[in-house]
Amino acid sequence: MIRLRWLFCAALAAGALRADSREQILQRMDEGSKKLKTVSAKLHELSYNAVIQDTTTQEGELRLRRGKNGLSGVLMFTTPNDEHSIGFNGRTIETYFPKANQVDVMNVGKNAAQLDQFILLAFGAAGSDLEKNYEVSLAGTQAVNGTTCDHLELIPKSPEARKFATKIELWIPQGQSNAIQEKVTEPSNDYILNTYSEVKLNPSLPDSAYELKLPPGVKRINAK
User: Fold this and answer.
1) By the 8 A CB rule, do 75 and 43 touch?
2) CATH number at residue 204
3) Residue among 121, 108, 126, 115 nearest 168 (CA)
4) Domain span at residue 108?
5) How far is CA 133 from the centre of its chain?
6) DSSP assignment, residue 143?
7) Where are the beta strands (DSSP E) in the chain?
8) What is the pLDDT of residues 106-138, one digit of tens each?
9) What is the mean pLDDT of residues 136-142?
10) Which of 36, 47, 119, 155 has a Cα at 20 to 30 A from 129?
């Protein structure tokens, strides 16, 4: 029995020794970023409101595409009674509410680059960019839905970025470059926790799959 326990502890220690360092994780994110052009994934979103200490959840699907003109894509929420889709392309974000047959259009202006950076954190972020824009620390390993992940904590360096998020956390499966869970904590202490599944990197999808589909006659509202 003592020998079996010793072998078990030795196996755990060997696994710990093989865990990647912070630098190795960032390096493999650099390598993964060079290869990633498109991604699709299922999404479970949990939103926490610190004032009323309440959470809400949504289910959806995310599709992203990186091109010469920047980032574009669509996020489709399929939760009953709250179906809506968000399309983003450059400086424009469109949120479509099918029940109202209305789309809210927002121009993010100078914040476009900042928005792209946040969206790409889970998929396609280069480790070198993370080091440039955040204080990056390795918070150990954790399991997410049975998958062992490296847990990174990111503190934005830019005052502008800190208006959107005070801390961002990524859970990246060991040996991989993309996150399967992401938590964004806002200055209000509200946070959004996204958990991704059925992740497909560079899937064979038509260009239309990354575009927001709007019906004829939809009402357009310019949002501020």
Assistant:
1) yes
2) 2.50.20.10
3) 121
4) 19-222
5) 16
6) E
7) 38-49, 54-67, 70-77, 84-89, 92-97, 102-107, 134-144, 147-156, 167-173, 181-185, 191-201, 219-222
8) 887 666 555 656 677 888 889 999 999 999 999
9) 94
10) 47
